[in-house]
Amino acid sequence: MEPTINYSEKIPNNVNLADDRALQRALERWQPEFRDWWRDMGPDGSANYDVYLRTAVSVEPQGWAQFDYVRMPDYRWGIFLNPVPAGATIGFGEHKGQPVWQDVPGEHRANLRRIIVTQGDTEPASVEQQRHLGLTCPSLYDLRNLFQVNVEEGRHLWAMVYLLHRYFGRDGREEADALLTRRSGDADNPRILGAFNEKTPDWLSLFMFTYFTDRDGKFQLAALAESGFEPLARTTKFMLTEEAHHMFVGESGVSRVIQRTCDVMKEHRTDDSSQVRAQGAIDLETIQRYLNFHYSVTIDLFGADQSSNAATFYTAGLKGRFDESKRNDDHVLKGRSYPVQSVIDGAFAERDVPMLNALNEVLRDDFIRDSIGGVGRWNKVIEKAGVPFRLSVPHKAFHRKIGTLSQVRVSPDGRVVSDAAWNTSVDQWLPSAGDRAFVASLMGRVVEPGRFAGWIAPPAVGVNRQPVNFEYVRFN
Ligand SMILES: [Fe+2]
Ligand SMILES: [Fe+2]
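Above: query sequence and fe (ii) ion SMILES. Below: predicted holo structure tokens.
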């Protein structure tokens, strides 16, 4: 039986932190740095709000969450790992079948540190990207959901920092400090990955981000949850339970925007985007362009389609595949191949490459399959309203910045196009300055319980069985 989380300690944890005084002291030195970062880069102006938040009280699947009003600077960020499974063995790679590692093997130390730092860097980055959105919330319900995502991303940072402090000595502590000094979008000291330096300037961007980019988080965490380095596997398993809520915020948020748009289209008997806009709703064409943008920058996060690092991480047992244990193959993958797309003489061609080198592409394809599901559910909302429009994800090669496919200009429907054709059409394919200005013009601040901005439908149900008009945030 795993200890219940001890909230009487300065740093709530279920890892017996009190037994390791040096580690506890190091983390207690990092804690005020984190609090300073939260004050400077966390949700703008929110320090005195009482927010109806869930806090982890145990990592057991039943009843790990407790709901109550909390001021975010007082949120009990802590260190929670899933229980140690007895006798676990490494599930893939050249060490397959050997006992999992409780400590970092010397020869994999640099790679593991890099994996943990890269994951850890995304967590504070997304909080920074979203820090102004509270000022333009469409409802108290949505404001509360935003803050829930933000505090949990803060906790994900704690999760990675614990691993750095506990297992990587002085360079781990230095990396933990650096996680608080990089800044999303900063020209001199940016976050590590591209999508985490983009702006999230409005709520449609937030919903697309939490649908697509938090889903990248799901797939990365699921691959790390297979790791032979057992503390990393247990940490990421618990993070995955929180990630599910972030993706819910995105899927239901976009769905409610679409619902409102369709209601306006029906009420005013129009499919003309300028008339939809005149009624204060977001036209489906603009929603499609936002989708194209967030989808394409997110699939870049999986990295190059062929990568010797990906092969090394897998063979060494550091990072598995999504659902590794459910796959029916040898879990070593030597001599196996995988088809990747390339461009030869202006046309797409599929090429078989060694699967070990293509594992980024394997994970990207798993992500693509998963993300298409929600787009189908959004289309159901449009279909139900009797509107003939359908949303779709763009071609995999559209608007890519990383990998083989970044060498060509490709339309959302998968045609290779010239630079000139790209420039002519890009405003139909990606959000234009005009689209962004229009969406920004809708972003007011609605904070009366039960009221919703005119561009989004209310949710079907509230949080934790509270009514939709519950006072999810109290301003002081
Ligand atoms: Fe996260
Ligand atoms: Fe997340």
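Residues 173 and 307 are 28 Å apart (CA to CA).
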